[in-house]
Each structure stands twice: as C-alpha cells, then as structure tokens.
Amino acid sequence: MLIVPDIIQQSAFQFPDRCAISVNNNELTFAEVDERANRLAQLILNMGISRGERIALLAMNETEFFEVQVAAIRAGVTLVPLNFRLAIPELSFIMDNAEPQMLITGPGFHQIGDSLGCPNRLSLGAEYEQAINSVSAMERSPIDAAAICSVLYTSGTTGRPKGSLISNQALWARIVSFTLEYKPDPSNVFLQGLPLFHIAANVSFTYAYNGATNIVVRDFNPADVIQTLEDKQVTDALFVPTMINLLINHPDIETANLSTLDFVAYGASTIPPSVLTKAIDVFGADFCQLFGMTETSGCTALRPEDHDPVNKPHLLASAGVVAHGFEVRVVDEQDIDVQVGEIGEVICRGPALMDGYLGAEEATSAALRGGWMHTGDLGKLDEGGYLFVTDRKKDMIISGGENIYPREVEDVLFSHESVHSAAVIGIPDQRWGEQVHAVVVLQPNCSMSEMDLLVYARENLAGYKVPKSVEYVEELPLNATGKVLKKILREPYWAGRERQVH
Fold this sequence. Notes:
CATH architecture of the domain at 396-494: 2-Layer Sandwich
Distance between the termini: 45 Å
Shape: globular
CATH topology of the domain at 396-494: GMP Synthetase, Chain A, domain 3
CATH class of the domain at 396-494: Alpha Beta
CATH superfamily of the domain at 396-494: ANL, C-terminal domain
Largest sheet: 9 strands, mixed
C-alpha cells in the first residue's frame, strides 16, 4: 500500500500550542485539532461506518472543519462537504448521489439536516462535543494514498453538480503544488476568504501542513475582512476576483493598515487587468494566480514576478505557465495540439487530478479521456508558454460565424471607471444567430447611458464584438465562489428556444 503524510500530525508535533484555525475568534490549536480528529475518527468507526463509505458536512465555515476532514481521512472514510447555499432539493440530489452514512450539521442547518434523511446525525455544538468526548482517541494507522478522502461537488452552473472523487494522493499532490507555488512557512498568518466546502479548503490544508495559522472568514463582508486583515496581522490571503474587486472599492481600504500583508493568492474566475492593476497598487503585496478547477487543482500559475503592470502589462490577462506537478496542453477537437497562438481546449494531467465523477462513468470517460482532464476552457499559449484563457466553451458567442469571447469584451467594459462589474452573454438574433449583450453593474453613485458605454466599447473593440445591447442591474447572480451564473442571465432570452449554438 502506498501511503501519504497526515495533514495535521507534523504541525501538531512541532507547534502543538499554535493556533491552527480561527473562525470569528473561536480558536483551536494544532494539538487540539489533532486530538479531536482522533476522537471523531474513533466515533465514526464506533457508529459502524466502514472504510470507503461516506460522511457529509453541512455547515458554514466552522472551526471544526479541519478535524472533520482529518478524522475522515484517518478513519478511511470519505468526506462530502455540502454547499450550504444550496436549496433543499439541490442538497437532496447530492445526498442521494453520495449516499453518506452520517451527516454533521452546523449552527443554522440542523433543521435542514433533519429533512435530508441520513442514517446517523450529529449536530455541532453540545451534542457533538459530548459525542467526541465519550470515546477514546483512535490509534493511528497509515493513510492509504489510493483511498478517496473527499467528494467535492462542482458548482453545477450548467446542470446537475457532479461529485469529483479526490484521493489522498491527489490531495497530497495539491498540497505539494500549493507549497511550491505559495511558499508558506510557520510564521505566516493565512486568511481564507472562501467557503471550505470548495477546493479552496486544499489551500487551507496546505498552510496548516506547513504550520501556519488559518484565519477563516465565516461569511464574506468587505468591511469585516479589512478589519480582520489589520487585527490579525494577516500575511497571506486567498480571495476570488469578485472579493478583490469589493475590497479595493470599499472606502475602509483607504485608511487600512495592511503592512503585514505581503502575499495575495486568487483564482476561481477571471480578473480584468484593470482591476488587477488597481489591486496590486492598493494591497502593495505579491500576487499569485492559480488557474484550474475542482477536478484538477491549479494547473497553471501566474507568479508574483509576472504581476508587473509597468514592465509586463500584457501578462495581467494571462493564467501563467504550467504549475508544479502538472502538464498542460491546448488541443483541437481531436485532442491534437494546436499551434502557438491558436485557440483550443485546455487539457492537463498530473497526480492532483480527480479519480473521476461519483456514479458517472460516461462523464468520467469523457472528461478524462486519454488520461488528460478536459477542462472545457478555451485558451491559447504564447511563445513563452503563458496560457491565455479566452472563455468557457459553453460561454463562447457565435455571431454571424465569428467567434466572440465574452472575457475580452468584459475586460474592456471593466476598464471604464464607472463600471463596477460586467457579464457578457449571447442572446438570440434572427439574422446573426446570436448577438452580444452586456449586463453591467455601475460603481456606486455613478450613472452612464447605454450609448456612452457602447461608444467606449466601440473605441476599444472590433465592431462585431461590441455589445448590441446593455442592461444595467444592481448586482450579478454569483455562485458561492464568486463566479457569475451566466446560465441565469441567459435563461430569460433562450426560454422555449432550441439552441443551436451551445
């Protein structure tokens, strides 16, 4: 049996009294996480849950998240972290798909947990504390690299979510890759801005493995996060572009003391170069982007030295070069490499890839054909090996036979000082098949006519890429990781139509 290291054990040995995780000032040391995880692991086994079976967690970011994942790994079971923002029918679908033998719920979710139907239930709080204190700590055993440690469900923006099977080997490979890219050390104080049911948890485990403290945001609020950056003397942080945009445009940022912050990681969606340029100036920190997905982890990296608006402005639109532990290619429909500068689908492989989708052999075969994960993202490589992601395959607009990549249009709209955020979609057009439509959120206290924005776009884009219509809204629909739900934006326009273009 091939074995991999434990996530928390070494830090518990070296730094037993150091804070491992803090949520709303509720803290657990590395020694406490280690010991509590061993008790929970024994409790899981005492409940008759067998190795290879699954348990689920429905909670906001809580201090117990680390111990639940570590306990699952040590007990040889699989953790299914549930997206707490999902509706009950969506949660029921995942529960039916994953068939967990135990469900742990956090504050605010106990009643929902009761409605989901699960053989064993445990509620964080007094009940949970009593349960884990009633058993002895489990004796350690080697961690099987091949065993599945978690099922991470995709966001399901285009249909039913799929459960990505992440093995202990894949998690370890992700920790190694993040360690090489982010270079964490025990002196770091890491702020986790994302929900832990997401792949972002892998970054938190990386900092924990390296002995660093995790300050975990329970519910993202820009003013609170800015205050936390100051109060906790945060050195490293992880955000999605939507969060970065909210932070740099919040009035509190102007007087905030961010002198300890020296590294900002970001990912999950594209960021307009104009927003990134402002963020680099406002934070005064090194930036690092990892591009990837739940199924892959970060397969390319735009490293701090390439975040240079003065000398390398063109790279701010790039997803970087291949990350440690990966191979990356850009291919055509036959999986043949396209020429440098030509657009194709981004595919990757490496030990961090998922094993497949739970209960979905056909989808697994399609996604992992030839041993390469087919990301569904379109992009191109330049002469230096830098990847430029143009868009998701499903988001590409085809108007009059021309391929239009929404991100290119969005980047131009974002560069206007009055625009806070924008999403570009294709809507039906009798003559051209599709036309470009922009959904725009303006900066606070700003007003702008549709014509003024279209004139600005026309000055910066080829005529066929310029939006034919603009819709101003108060906010864009986002999923839990800050990605715009374009499916929701498209629905009113495509309802009742048989789409030919996507």
